[in-house]
Every structure is written in structure tokens, then in C-alpha cells.
Specification:
By secondary structure, this protein is an all-alpha fold. It contains 29 helices and two strands. Strands 1-2 form a two-stranded antiparallel sheet. The longest helix has about 50 residues. It is elongated.
Length: about 575
Amino acid sequence: GAVINLGEAVSNEYVSTFEALAKALSELHDVVNSEVLCHFVAALGTAMRSKEIKLGKAGMEGLMKLLERKALDEGNWDPHQLRTLAEKLSKVNARSSDFAKKLAFTCQRLVEKDNDFTAEQISALVKAFSEWQDQHVLVNVFHALEDKGKLDDLIKSIGLADVPAFLKFLAHSTLSNRKRLIETLTSFHQDKLPQRVATLKFVNMLETLQELADVKDDASISFRAKFEKQVVGSILQRRTVSSDDIIKCIMALHKVGSKDPLQKLLTAPLLTRAVPEKGEPKAIIQSVGPILETVQALELQAPYLEAASAARFLTACRKHDKPNFVGAALALQETAYLMMPSLVQAVCTFAERAKFHRLDSSSEATQAQDLCKLLIRVADKYSSGSIPFRSADMNKWVQVADDAIAEDSGDRTDRKVESLERLLKRKHSSVAKDAEKALGPQWMECLLLQSKHLYWSGKNLALLESPRPITAVKDMARKLSESRFLSSSSQRAADRLLTEDDLQRAKEQERDTHRKREEEMRRREEELRQNAPVNEEEDRLKDLFRRNNRQPEAPKPPTMAPPEASSSS
């Protein structure tokens, strides 16, 4: 049963031997010992796991025919052996509905002879028959268990990881009492769900969560919602979780459409703790890059993770003389740049100093072209006001920080980041505490990056002036165009951008036009009000004239009484 690493030649013999054995067994005419067959199938499963081997389909189908034809009828099988057959044969590249029916009939016969199946064995059978898409043939096995009075106790013994397979089987079965069985299964696990979830391995949690995506009935959906809550709670209690596990959890929650648990995970401190506090810019972003890519691909938002990643990226860039910033800057998502105007300006400054040349054909230069296109696209959205909505908490923290800093700074032009941290902790301790918990140790830098009134570029100083991302992009494009690094299309797109000053003038003109329009409306209203008495007097005189010159009405002709009826009539 052990998995052994074999050389190529020996491995080929190994496979050929199994194929020959399968073929030989299928051609036997005598009854084959059930234990021998079971061991062979188990060894076959081991061979399949040791290397991606696709054994001869003819040999496999011959083996299944042997089992179907006489071995299952004449062999002395027990529940454990039938479980082994089902588990191992469901994984190979062969399928036989007749074999599935015969295997189910053999299981039914054992139940009727008072052989006890464990919950694990029944779960394995359900999963195997689901792989074959023949789970409907198990219905008679469940009828036999119910006739023996064993079904309810068996349902309550099903492990939490096996619940999804059972729910799907029961939902699609023809069992008359399937609704009651589903309610029994879900209610039993719901009572002690926190303790049961805690016993699952992380991978089993995610597999169970993904399998629950297909349940449809009310009891199963209610169970799934409570299970999702417990899974997310269990994950968030951990100090650290690998990026791969976080991605798997995000994808599982997205697959089942769990908006609230998913949002809770995407804004959890667990994600910001995944960002390394030290290292080169590229290494910092690479550690969380797959998470950011997954979030973008699923059209989700992880604002705290993006802010923490950007803050540590800029800090790392300032600590290295020639930082390899291009790949890292490109890994940050477009939403990060749209949320953080200081990030756009700082990256444009790095790009100007990098001095890229059009003859440079390195991979970094190619990435730099893509980065410039990204920055120009972002600047265009700044110009049109197409900025996505930040989370409500982030908006609140940034607004409180802006107001507190503006009130305390007076005529100063810059402030040390540490002094701003102390200021916010002194004046707004609850906001500072919440922001630090969500954003990590560089929480103040994260808020500065999001501000529209303060500029921070990775240094220990924050400038008390508004960042100018559009101007920075135009300046970068003009600088790079001197070395003919930018393509003509990118240069034209940058030239078309309206700077912050242009936008401000446009707003002032719009306000001025609006003000003049309101003044004109007020002037007309005043004129109408002043002319109202004259108009009223004219209307009164006209009405009097019409009454005095009204023609007398012609007299109406007298009405004739109807003739009386004659006595003769």
C-alpha cells in the first residue's frame, strides 16, 4: 500500500502489471475471493495516487464487469469492502451503471441481513455514487435502513464535512420523507455548529462551504448561512493565514453568494497582517499580489488591504536608492490609485526619475509602458470624477483626520507623521484605535494616502497641501516623451487630460453661470411682483366694462301646457 518513487522503466512495468492483472481477473470464470479483489482495488487506488496514471480502460471495465457478473453475487462481502470498492473505483476513468446498480443491491442485501453500516461508510457510498451520477440507485438502501429503524441514528452520526453530499443526495432523491431527513440532519448539526466547525481542518471548511453552494431547500440554505458565519468567525480568530488559504476562502464565499461574510473577511485585520512590514517594494506587493488579483477578478474591494499595501510599498521605495518599483506598482489595482491620489503622484515621481528610454527592451521597460497607461487611465477618471466609493468607516476616519490636522496646523506647510498620529490619538482616540486595528501599524500613512487635502509620498513628512495626481501624470508623460519612451497614443491621451487647475476653473465658471442664472430669475420675479398691482387694476376695469356693456338677454318663449286628453279617448 505504500507509495514508492519508481524509475521511468520500472514505473512503466508497474503500470503494465496492473493492467495485466485487471485483464486476467476479468477473464476468470471461477468465483474470486472478495478479500483478494478488495485488496487489488485498494492497491489500484494507491497506484493512481502515486502518479497520474490512466490505466487501460478496457482492463478497468473488465474488472467492473467481473464484479457485476458474479463477484458481488457470490462473494462474501462486508460493508467495509463495499465502501473500498465504491471509493476506489469511483476515481478511475471508467463507469458502468450496471455495476453501480449491482453494488447498491449488494449494500441493500447486507442491510436486510442486519449488517451494520457506519456513517462514514454510508457517506463514502453517497459520494462515490455521486461521482458516477448514479446516486438515485441508493434509494433502496436508505429504504432498507429505515425499515430496520437505523436511518435516523445514522443521519445524526454524519460528520460535518459529509453534510453537503448528503443534503444534495436527499434533495434529489425520491425518498418520501426526504424533507424530514434534511431537517433532522441540519438541525442536529446547527445545535453544536461552533464546536463542530472548530474540529474541521481549514481545507475541509472550504470544501464543505463550496459544496453547500448547490443546496436549494430552505432548511439547507438556513444551515449554510449559519455555517458560513462560523467559518468566517473561525478564520478571523487566527493570527495569520496563508495567502493561498485567504484566496480559497474568498472564492468559496463568492461562489455561494455570501455578501455579508465576504465583506467581513475583506475588511478584516487578518488581510492587512498578510502585508510584510519590511522588504523590497516588489517582495512586499508580491506577498499579497495574488489576493489583490483575486479581489479584482471577482470585482470586489479590499480597501484596507490596498491601503496597507500601498503605504508599505511607498515606505520601502523611499528606503532603497534604486527601488525596483515598476512591477510592484503595476500589481496594485486601479481602485487603489483611484482611492489614493498621493499614491498616483508619488509613483509618477518615481517614473520620472527612472529615466526610461525608448530603446530599452527589458521586461521592466515593458512593464513601465503598461504602468504609464494605467496612470493615464486613472488620471482620466480623476478628471471625469469617476471615483469609486470608499467604505463608510474609511471615509469617516479620513474626514476626522483631515479636520483635526487642519485645525491644529495653522500656517505650517508640513507635519511629521508621528506628530499626526499623536494628535489623532489625543483628540479622537476611538477613531485612531479603530483605524489602527483595521489598517495595521501604518494606519496614519493609510489615511494620508486617502486624503484629498494632504500629500504623503513615503517620507516621514506629510505636506499640508492637496495632492495633484492629474498634473503629476501630465508632467510624467511630458518628461518621458522627451526620451520618446511613451507611445504617441499615450502621449495624446495625456495631453487631453484636464489638470486640477482646469477643473477648478471649470467649477468656478459653472458656479458663476449658476449664480447669474439665479440672479436673472430673481430679477424677473421682482419685475412681475412690481407689475402685479397694475395688472390687477387693468383686469378689474376690463371686467367692469364687460358687465356694463353686456347685451340684454332675449325673453324666453312661453311654454305651452300639454293639451288635455278628450273624454272619448
